[in-house]
Task: structure prediction
Amino acid sequence: MTFHPRIDYATFHTSQRQLEDEGAPFVYTAEHRARFDEILKRYPPDRKRSAVLPALYLVQRQLGYITANAMRYVAGLLEITAADVEDVVSYYTMFRTKPAGIFVLQVCRTLSCALNGAERVTEELSGKLGIVPGQTDASGTFTLLEAECLGACDRAPVVMVNDAWHECLKPEDASKLIDDLRARGEAALSGCHHVIEHKR
Ligand code: FES
Result:
């Protein structure tokens, strides 16, 4: 199904997009609802819709992906239509509408990273996990993807893991990163140097 209405007399207005998953009825956890309420304070009351991106990130953090019921929930909170939310979800590649692993690894394949061995990083991760980009490993722990520039080109090759960065990942260290993620979770990541330097 799609949230967009079918208009019989004008097929060029008809969305062909299909939502992957209705999902169970959705509400934020208490922690995510509190975070959402904090985020909403950044926007004037008549501009609630501007919070749609962080609202969707919270859904994705909670479920791992975004269901149709979660889109309806966000639409209700922001007083917009479910079709408005679907438009955003389907436009931005960082939002997922299919289940993914606990850790979603996105290897940057754009120029700086490509020149510094990103393809070999992907090969090492593929070999370690037994999957190719676009797949999730048998344990449901890791999803491997390729991405375009992640904005940290001076620290190439860069891998985004969920919402965090790991920079300067040499191919020979890729396998160890998987072991470290299993052992220590996101604490194993280097973080983004732009964020770290900004905090100093
Ligand atoms: S080219 Fe990889 S982060 Fe920009």
